[in-house]
Design brief:
By secondary structure, this protein is mainly β. 2% of the residues lie in helices and 50% in strands. The protein has a domain of 112 residues: Methylamine Dehydrogenase, Chain H (7 Propeller), CATH 2.130.10.10. The longest helix has 6 residues. It is found in: Nucleus.
Length: 356
């Protein structure tokens, strides 16, 4: 498999952890001199799970130090961070069906308080994915039970939620992403995507059915992303190395960026297994972004079960950043400094990349 580009100029630091790494996220920047990462960990021997806040030494990238830790009631299934009026906020969903909000101190990132939603009417089973709205005031949660909930994180010690949709188990949702204050996208089985508009209650405003992908109804969307400046295009990654985009201006079509069965004239694919996470990659000159046509898909970063972290650009060769001997389960691009990327590796470690 040929991969374009080179990682020779990358600075990569790997840090062993004492437990399995389920998810990683950057914490919104608190100061110019300090950097913090949020890591969801699980111990298979004891069954214990936790969320740790790690302090990073940006000058030397020495071994991260534990700043704060929170014990989770169950294994974490999804992790998100955002900035709120109370400071940095962490949203974590669990396999037990609960969603927890942890509030970090704005001075030293120590975890100060926690609120949660955990009643049986919330989700019947595991919560597949959560996503925090910019500002941290509202959280979207989806589950394999077919329920979509919006959780209001107010200025009190309590949270409330309302049901947006319930398929009664007929449809399962595995990924979700806010697009605007009133719109969001979800993904699920069969490479399907749904677009929701809260101004149009009763069901999805638009759907992309999975039969576009050679009838592979068993495929699954694991991750979706929406660019803040181009909300009409939804990016998705899933089974069999599939990465595609859905343009709402042409809702019955998909734009394939990578898939496991390629024709000879198509570009090489970065991976052939499950694409666990996908994000738009803003690490490129702003002049290039301004010159990119609105119908052209902006660069995307992916991580996969076969240990690949790569950047995909439409019509170009993929650029491989990492090729590990184990799965890369999750990653996050620093919004304030897109040159920095943190990854969670299956072999109980995290990796931090610094691009030149």
């Amino acid at each position: 498999m040929a991969i374009g580009g080179s990682n020779e100029t990358l600075e990569v630091c790997r840090f062993p952890q004492s437990k399995y790494v389920d998810a990683v996220r950057w914490l919104p920047k608190i100061s110019a001199l300090e950097r913090f990462a949020v890591v969801a960990l699980s111990d298979f021997d004891s069954g214990a799970s936790s969320i740790d806040v790690l302090a990073l030494d940006r000058s030397e990238l020495s071994t991260p130090s534990l700043q704060s830790s929170w014990t989770a009631p169950s294994r974490v299934s999804s992790l998100r961070t955002s900035e709120s009026f109370r400071g940095p906020v962490i949203a974590a969903s669990t396999l037990a069906g609960s969603v927890h909000f942890l509030f970090a101190n704005s001075a030293d990132a120590s975890l100060e308080s926690e609120v949660c939603v955990s009643d049986k009417a919330f989700h019947a089973g595991a919560v597949s994915c959560v996503d925090l709205k910019d500002g941290g005031s509202e959280c979207l949660s989806v589950g394999e039970d077919g329920r979509i909930n919006l959780v209001n994180v107010g200025d009190t010690a309590k949270v409330s939620y309302r049901r947006v949709f319930d398929s009664n188990g007929l449809v399962s949702y595995t990924a979700a992403k806010w697009a605007s204050p009133v719109e969001f996208a979800t993904g699920g089985l069969g490479f399907s995507l749904q677009w929701w508009d809260q101004r149009k209650p009763g069901g999805a405003a638009c759907q992309l059915k999975g039969d576009w992908f050679k009838g592979a109804s068993s495929g699954m969307v694991h991750s979706v992303d929406i660019h803040s400046s181009r909300k009409d295009i939804c990016l998705a990654g899933g089974s069999s190395g599939v990465v595609f985009a859905w343009d709402l201006r042409r809702p019955q079509q998909s734009i394939i960026l990578s898939q496991s069965e390629l024709n000879e004239n198509e570009s090489h694919l970065p991976c052939e297994s499950e694409v666990w996470s996908v994000q738009y990659d803003s690490y490129f000159p702003s002049s290039r972004a301004m010159a990119t046509p609105s119908a052209h898909i902006l660069p995307a970063m992916i991580c996969s079960e076969d240990g690949i972290l790569a950047v995909i650009r439409q019509g170009e060769e993929p650029v491989e950043l990492l090729a590990e001997t184990c799965a890369i389960n999750s990653f996050d691009i620093d919004k304030q400094n897109p040159s920095d990327v943190i990854c969670g590796l299956e072999w109980e470690s995290i990796a931090i990349l610094s691009r030149p």
